[in-house]
Design a protein that fits this description.
The structure is a single chain. With 233 residues, the protein is of the alpha+beta class. The chain has helices at residues 5-8, 10-26, 38-50, 60-97; strands at residues 105-108, 112-115, 121-127, 133-139, 145-150, 157-163, 176-185, 194-209, 212-217, 224-225, 229-232. It is built from 4 helices and 11 strands. Strands 1, 3, 6, 8, 9, 10 and 11 form a 7-stranded antiparallel sheet that branches. A hairpin with a 5-residue loop joins strand 4 (133-139) and strand 5 (145-150).
Length: 233
């Protein structure tokens, strides 16, 4: 089996080795080697044709193979660039559409509670099965349980509750962000899975959030990514 004309040419082989060493040094991936660059490819091709053995010139088959290799590499890079551009456009479009949520109350997957200066805080959870006992614990920033709410038996599905902002002693706690934990059990005492979610009013929309487009919700210290929203109230 004959080897590739590139491998038979000392100049081209040295250039390939130099490019591979450079890729390893920089730590970047180079899946198509030096032929992935248009200018480098044509320089190598012209050099190879110029320095080929006149008595044993490159065959049309070998030349076609090299052109096909570069065409494939260039095509893949073009597709990758197009997909990246499309993803950016979709992300920006989602962010602009989310502008309609400003001022609306949304539901998102979180166990946070946003308590206003006056009034109560509402949140909810989803039960995987019916429960004969459901308890919700309101937790402060230091991890201390401030209040335990006994909600009694509940059916499977989406449930909600309201916290009046009072601790176990009946004193009003400061406005701010709190969290809650849900404990549920069926008639046999077996635990029932409860998935918490929060609710709050959207204050603004971020087009370039950490996890893509997101919304800033009243009482939340961090933006909520759009893919975490579960509904609009």
């Amino acid at each position: 089996m004959s080897s590739s004309p590139i491998n038979n040419n000392p100049l081209l082989a040295s250039l390939q080795g130099s490019s591979a060493a450079s890729s390893k040094t920089s730590g970047s991936a180079a899946p198509f080697g030096p032929l992935a660059n248009v200018d480098t490819f044509y320089k190598l091709l012209v050099t190879q044709l110029t320095n080929q053995d006149p008595l044993n010139p490159m065959s049309n088959q070998d030349l076609s193979a090299q052109l096909a290799q570069f065409s494939t590499a260039s095509g893949v890079q073009s597709v990758q660039a197009s997909l990246a551009s499309l993803a950016a456009q979709i992300s920006q479009s989602q962010g602009l559409q989310a502008a309609n949520l400003v001022g609306r109350t949304v539901v998102f997957d979180s166990n946070s509670l946003s308590l206003p200066a006056s009034g109560s805080a509402a949140a909810g959870f989803t039960l995987d099965a019916a429960a004969s006992r459901v308890d919700v614990s309101v937790v402060g920033g230091n991890g201390q349980t401030l209040r335990r709410l006994s909600l009694g038996p509940m059916a499977a599905g989406v449930q909600n509750f309201t916290w009046d902002g009072l601790d176990s002693s009946g004193a009003r706690v400061p406005a701010g962000s709190y969290s809650f934990k849900v404990e549920a059990a069926d008639a046999t005492g077996a635990a029932v899975t409860a998935s918490p979610f929060g609710a709050g009013r959207v204050q603004s929309v971020l087009l370039q959030g950490k996890d893509g487009p997101g919304v800033q919700i009243e009482g939340q210290s961090q933006p909520i990514a759009l893919n975490r929203l579960q509904g609009v109230v």
